[in-house]
Design brief:
Radius of gyration: 23 Å
Helix content: 10-25%
Distance between the termini: 29 Å
Low-confidence stretches: 1-27, 49-53
Shape: elongated
Largest sheet: 8 strands, antiparallel, barrel
Oligomer: single chain
CATH class: Mainly Beta
Amino acid sequence: MTRFITIILLCFALGTIRAQDSARVEPGHLLNHEIGFNTVLLVKQLISNNPTNTLSQSPYVVFYNLYYKDMVGLRIGAGISNSTNKTKIDDQPFPRKTTVNSTDLRVGFSYNFLQKGPLTFNCFADYIIESHKVSTINTTTVQVSPNPVEEQTITTEDKTTGAGGQIGVGLKYNLLKNLSIYAEVPFVVVNEKVSSRVNIHSDSGIPDDETISTSTTTGSRFIIPTTIYLVLRF
């Protein structure tokens, strides 16, 4: 499903580029629109069912900017990812099932403080929220003599929710009046609540053994510009 959505987004981007080739943005427009696609995540989704990052990437798959006279603007971004992976384990009745759900949202303001030739520099400030959940279900068979063989299901869940802010600078290179590439360096501060749950269920009829723990942390980080966005401008 994620691949299908990714392909649709790419087709939309290519179609929009061709359509705008004869309808370029003229200077002096009161409002300017920008739609950006995270090319790194899109490529990873196309070539792999379970993409991993060796470097920290921006979690936002797509963004939209609305600029007033191409100077001051409102910006929003979103990244939603859902995946399920099943791993076959020898001598076990069911595969191990791992489900990952991630949602990242941001809203803020941007200011283009320098335009020189094809280059545009901007600064920004955003409010961000995040929700990440990883769930694993593993069913095994166990036997404690002289009891019969029984199935035991272990469910583990790790959930992280957070909110905070980010500020930073970005650089846009205008390939055409309607097409640019963009990268940014945000400094992120976020307060996160991490909850973990482990449930052990046995079909022998004994009560489930469940452990729940929670913690709260506040941290900060820089995200280096390893994410490149393809930006449509109109």
